Amino acid sequence: MPRPRVLKRARVVPLVFEDDLYERLREVAKRRGLSVSAFIRQLVVRELQQAPLQTHLQIPSDPLSPTDPDPPVDPLVQVQFEEFEEELASLEERLSKLEVAVKRLPAGGFRAGAPLGEQAARLRTWLWDLNKAWEWLHREYKELAARVEPERARKWNLKLAELRRRWLALKRFLYAK
């Protein structure tokens, strides 16, 4: 039995990508819960909505002309920026939830020599999972910062520093002696 058609009046267009670009494309599509084809269609639709069609009578503008202060950003790189910002917001939300959970602990927190309860072990595990997420984001930041506007990179850096400060405060509390 053939696969049901998703698109009506569809046209197959073979595309050729370098291996590394295709792998990046596949990973991004997978994280968004899409097939590579669906993801590429979304990128094309977004690009066509942002840029009006030019006819042969119009002279296309030079994308790197001095009158255009910002050179065009590759759509895949833009997707990376957006995903980075989503991950940054997700980490901040998860860190806030951990802070709320820690505030609900009995006064005094955990003292050295006291038996570690199940709750304490769970919170410490959560803390270290957030550390791994922060370290991954920090590596991503180092790669992306050179390709993004300086103001945006500065905001990301400040947010990462703030999240790290909050994480360290939780670590000091959960491992207090």
Instruction: Quickly count the helices.
Output: 5
Q: Give the overall average pLDDT.
A: 78
Largest sheet: none
Computed over alpha carbons, the radius of gyration is 23 Å
The unreliable regions are 55-60, 62-68
Structural class: mainly alpha
List the helices and strands and how they pair.
Blueprint: H1 19-31, H2 36-50, H3 75-103, H4 118-144, H5 150-174
Give a summary of the structure in a few sentences.
This protein is mainly alpha-helical and 177 residues long. It has helices spanning 19-31, 36-50, 75-103, 118-144, 150-174. The longest helix has 29 residues, at 75-103.
Please explain how this structure is put together.
The structure is a single chain. The chain has 177 residues and is mostly helical. Among the domains are: 19-50; 117-177. It is 62% helix and 0% strand. The chain contains 5 helices and no strands. α1 packs across α2 (36-50), α3 runs antiparallel to α4 (118-144) and α3 (75-103) packs parallel to α5. The N and C termini lie far apart (66 Å). Mean pLDDT is 78; it is low at 55-60 and 62-68.
Features:
177 residues; mainly alpha; 5 helices; 62% helix; 0% strand
